[in-house]
Hints:
It is built from 10 helices and 17 strands. The chain is an alpha/beta fold.
Amino acid sequence: MNAVVLRELGGPEKLLMEHMPDPKPGAGEIVVRVKAAAMNHRDVWIRTGKYAGITLPVVLGSDGAGEVVSVGAGVAPSLVGKEVVINPIFEWGKDPKAQGPNFRILGLQDPGTYAEYVKIPQANIYQKPKRLSWEEAASLPVAATTAYRAVVTRGQVKKSETVVVTGIGGGVAVFALQIAKKLGARVYVTSGSDEKIRRAKELGAEGGVNYKTKDWVKELRALLGGEGPDVIIDSAGGETFDRALDLARPGGRVVTFGATLGPTKELMVRRIFWKQLTILGTTMGTQDDFEKAIEMYGSGGLKPVVDKVFPLIEAQAAHGRMDEAGQFGKIVLKPS
Length: 336
Ligand SMILES: NC(=O)c1ccc[n+]([C@@H]2O[C@H](COP(=O)([O-])OP(=O)(O)OC[C@H]3O[C@@H](n4cnc5c(N)ncnc54)[C@H](OP(=O)(O)O)[C@@H]3O)[C@@H](O)[C@H]2O)c1
């Protein structure tokens, strides 16, 4: 098969298409022909050496949807031909509150979906919602699960609450906007691009502020009638996280699942205790979070936002787009 392999850390040019042996399913495993894969910022962290536990070479890719082509011992042969979405979560563990020590995500230790075929345990497939295209279905696993857990399981967003999602161009952020809207919340966004704020409004956001050109905390507070939001969903981290604590209303919740900007060097602790804030950390999700996220985009009627589809052979260009935060929604790769 053809697969995109990372043998050295560095820029997008390190992603090279290679010919590799087709994966063979072991006991309890299946092989899926990848119809579409999707990118996550995780892939950039791994490519640039900023992710824990990297061992090279790596076939990146946690997200994918495709057709089951072969099954190993102990797996029902009737699965062959089924159209599935891949669940990239391995060994979450027993506690729904937090993942256990063996938790890992497809596309590092286990060769991922930047390939024509991927091998996974039988338990890691879920029926592809018929109403979604391959590209849309492939967009879901990491980002929709993370967004679902951030907004619903951890954030407990309720109807009529006000929610701010930072960096709306991000893959997870767009899902968070859609899911919070579906729950009946009033959603505001930030972005480094006026065009992305416009797109967010088309998806139902009430408004947004460009963090590159405006004092976004001041502007959002004004947009919200002088008060902060009930909930902030942030994955920018860095200085943005401290500013989010400033924006939050007394008694509010701040949900964090990422640090795209790196560590928060100065954090005013007083904001947390004086305003009685709740800080909620969240990472990926349980099997239940994954299934409920997919259901929202299956029977729930939501549509994933696919930013751009690249042929797998153009993985370098796809990474370049994410490096520059060019995307609004999910960047998808398609094996030929
Ligand atoms: N813990 C987990 O399980 C988990 C799961 C998924 C992702 N993550 C993390 O969450 C982050 C987002 O992931 P993703 O895959 O959605 O990434 P992505 O698609 O690359 O999105 C990143 C977005 O960050 C936004 N951003 C950049 N600078 C910002 C700033 N100063 N203030 C606010 N937003 C800013 C940009 O939004 P605009 O384009 O709108 O400016 C950009 O589009 C990454 O750090 C990733 O590692 C964690």
